[in-house]
Amino acid sequence: MIITNPNAIEKSMALLLADLHLHQKPDWRFIYYQDFINELLLSDFRSLPMVLLGDVFEVKDKLDSRVINQFLNLVLKWAEKQEVIWIVGQHDSYIPGVATLEGLQHVPNIHIVSKDIYPKEGVAGSNAICCVPYMRDLADYRKLLKTVPDNATVLTHIPIVEALIQIGATNTDGISVEEFNRFKTVISGDIHNYVDIKNFHYVGATSQRDWRDKNVEPQIGVLTTDHRLMRIPLNAPEHIEIKNLKQLTSIETSDKQYVIKILTEKMELKRLAAIRKLPNVLNVIWEPPVVEILQTTLPEQEALIAPSAILQAHLEQAERPADTTIADLFEIGTELLDNTYKQIYSSAVAIGDNTETELS
Q: Does residue 151 share a domain with residue 270?
C-alpha cells in the first residue's frame, strides 16, 4: 500500500498533490505512479475535490503517450465524481505539447489555472480559497497576488526565499514569505521537502525524483475544514546510499522499495547480483569498485578497447554464482558505467560501443 493512511478524510475539504513530475523514465517511477494513481482512484479520497499544486510533469525531453495517458486516467476519472483543479507549475509551463492539454478545460469539473487566479469572482471573506498559478516573471505573480482578498487561503506554486535558504538551495530567486502575511494560510508546491514558515506551507513531493531528493519524505496533503494543511506520508521508493554491508541486511528483509547506491568497495559481484534480484530493489549503482577494479586489474593497453569489451573481460574473470550467466553479469555491469568510468576512458577508442547509462 502506497498511501499509509487512506482514511484520513474526516473534516477534509480537498486532496492536495504536489510535484508528481510524471515522466516515462526511469521505469520504476513510471510503475510507481501507475500504482499510486490506481490506489488513489480506489481510495476514500475520491470523495474529495483534488488540487494539483503544479509540476505534474517532468522537464527532460518529450513526454510519450504513456505519461499523458497516465495523467488523463487520473483526472478524467476523478472528474466523474469531483472537481479537479490543476494549478500549472514551473515545470509544466516549459514542456512542449502540454498546452494541448488545455482542452481539458472544457471537461466538466476540470479547471486549469495557468493565467489568472481561480475563481475570479465571488472570492471574499476568511473562508475564501483562491488558486494562484506559477508565473515565470515574479512581477506578474505579484500582480495576480494583489487581486486575492485579505484573509483568504491561497493554493499556489511558487518558491519563497526563506524556504530555499532553509533547504540549502544554491539559487534563492523567489518571493518573500512576508508578502503572504495578509492571507490566512498559503499551501504550495515547488519545493520537494515539506517546509513550514509562518503561514506558508509546502506539501512536499509525492516521490523522491532522483538522488537530489534522497532526504525527501514523500507526502500528500489534505486541506482541512479549518483551512489547515494535514500531511499524509507515502510508502514510496527510497534512494539510499550503502556505506557498509550491514545496511544491506535491513534492506533484504524490508517490504519497502529502494534505489541503491553502493559506496563501499567491499562487495563481491555475486552479492551484487543477488541484491539486484531482490523484488524490492529497483536499481543499483555501484560506484567506487568499478573504477578501482578497472584501474588495478586490467592491462593498460586494454584502454584502447571499447569500454563494453573491457567490462565483459572483467566479468568473465569474476567469481559468480553457477546459475548466473555472463549475459546476466554483463547486463549488471553495463549499468555500473558512470561519469567517473567515462572519464577514465575519455581517450579510449570506443568504436561500435553504444552503451548508454542512466545516471542518477
A: no
352 in any annotated domain: no
293 shares its domain with 202? no
Q: Give 2's Cβ-side CA count (13 Å radius).
A: 22
The domain of 275 spans 238-344
DSSP string covering 192-238, please? SS--EETTEEE---SS--SGGGTT---EEEEEETTS-EEEEEB---E
Residues 102, 32 share a domain: yes
Residue 201 C-alpha cell reads as 506551507
**304-320 b/e (C-beta count within 10 Å ≥ 16 → b):** ebbbbebbbebbeebeb
Looking at the fold, whether 188 and 116 belong to one and the same domain comes out as yes
Interatomic CA distance for residues 76 and 108, integer angstroms: 9
Task: Please identify which residue in the block is written with the cell numbers 541484491.
Answer: 275
The answer, yes or no, to whether residue 292 has pLDDT greater than 90, is no
pTM flag (> 0.85) = no
Q: What is the pLDDT of residues 173-215, one digit of tens each?
A: 889 999 999 999 999 999 999 899 999 999 999 999 888 899 9
Residue found by looking up cell 563481491 in the block: 268
Q: Do 229 and 269 belong to one domain?
A: no
Give the number of domains in the chain.
Answer: 2
Number of H helices, E strands in the chain: 10, 14
Asked if the model's pLDDT at residue 337 lies above 60, the reply is no
Give the Cα separation of 114 and 90 in Å (integer).
10
